[in-house]
Amino acid sequence: MLNTMRRNISIVIFALLILTSCQYSPYADEYTTEEPLMSAVIGSYVLDKQTISPDLKTIKDSMTGEEVIPRIEFFEDSTYKVEYLPNKLNTVNKEFITK
Fold it and tell me: Fewest C-beta in 10 Å: which of 23, 61, 66, 83?
C-alpha cells in the first residue's frame, strides 16, 4: 500500500514537472500570424546589439575602426540593403555588405 502511494505521488509530481516546464513566451500574442503587406514593411530598421548578439559591446568598421550601427532597409521594389552587419569577429568588412 505504501509503495503504491509513493509510486502514485511520484507519477503526479513527474506529470506536474513536465506540464510546468513547458516554455512560455509572454509575447506570443504579439507575433505576426499573417504575412504583412509590403507597404507596411518598407523602411529602415536599426538592429540593436542584443538583436545580433547578446554579449556584443560595440560594432566597429574594420577599415576605419569607427563604431557603426547595423541597419536593414527595405525598398518598394522588393529589394533591400544591409549595412554594417558584423561577422563573427564583431567587425564590419566592406566585402560583406550587400547592396
Answer: 23
